[in-house]
Amino acid sequence: MVKELVPEFVGEITDFPIHAMDQQVIGDLREAWTRYPVLRFRGVPIGDVEQIAMTKALGRIFQTTNVQHGKREDFSEIFVIANKKNPDGTPAGDLGDGEVQWHTDHWWIQEPPSAALLRALEVPPTGGNTYWANMYTAYAALSETMKARLRGLYIHHQDVLDISGSPRRSKELPFSKDFASWSGVDHPIVTRHPASRKLCLYLGASRERQTIVGMKQDEANELLDRLWQQATSPDHVWHQEWRVGDLMIWDNRCLLHRRDQFDPHSVRLMHRTTAEGGRPVAAF
Ligand SMILES: O=C(O)CCC(=O)C(=O)O
Ligand SMILES: [Fe+2]
Fold this sequence. Notes:
Blueprint: E1 2-6, E2 10-13, H1 23-35, E3 38-41, H2 48-58, E4 79-82, E5 94-95, E6 100-103, E7 115-122, E8 130-134, H3 135-140, H4 144-150, E9 154-158, E10 184-188, E11 190-192, E12 199-201, E13 211-212, H5 217-231, E14 237-240, E15 247-251, E16 255-259, E17 269-274
Parallel strand pairs: 2-3, 4-5
Antiparallel strand pairs: 1-2, 3-15, 4-17, 6-16, 7-15, 7-17, 8-14, 8-16, 9-10, 9-13, 11-12
């Protein structure tokens, strides 16, 4: 059922019995997803109902809080990612046509989600590819000295500004320029994945606004720059060139992802669902 595209990273599932999802099928899906944190289903004839059912097979539905335009009246579980416009000219989805920088979804909250499912309904002729970076291999490739240095370290992820630098709803810009003093959450840099039990890096997003708990900013900057550079090096990255009917499932707990920009005159329409996760657990 699973074809390996990249060892311990990307798998493709063919002939998935979407209309016969019994406990055995759900168990197999979870096992495949633990082994391959990025799973591709190509040309699957599914709609929103089936996408929601697959999401529920992996966890409880996570209610996305930061949706601006991508809310759906009929299915509250679905978050629309699109550059389409409504007849009145307002955006019919979120994220527009621009690049989305490297991130882990909802890295600034205590309990970030686990599974993300993204299904392509309309795709542009070029651009708009999605990239994933494997945080298991990114951690494993670090030197022993670096691994020892990371023991017990936490990044402070401020929750005031979003990835594009705009204030989040209901957040006021603090007076201090020291991000360490801003509201947010602390997550361990090295976490242990609850299902695979393997160690991985957890970097979140917004490198330029990150601090390390208890560390001077000069030292933190040097360390964070190195980690981000190594984590997103091509050695650990795979990308998806979308076709209509593709469904990707990924594990937000052990990956980073980003998206390319695309031609604003073309249309890209995706439906996203998300499953709840939990607090990232420190590896040490
Ligand atoms: O549009 C995409 O390819 C990915 C957007 C994204 O970051 C997400 O769905 O979490
Ligand atoms: Fe994302």
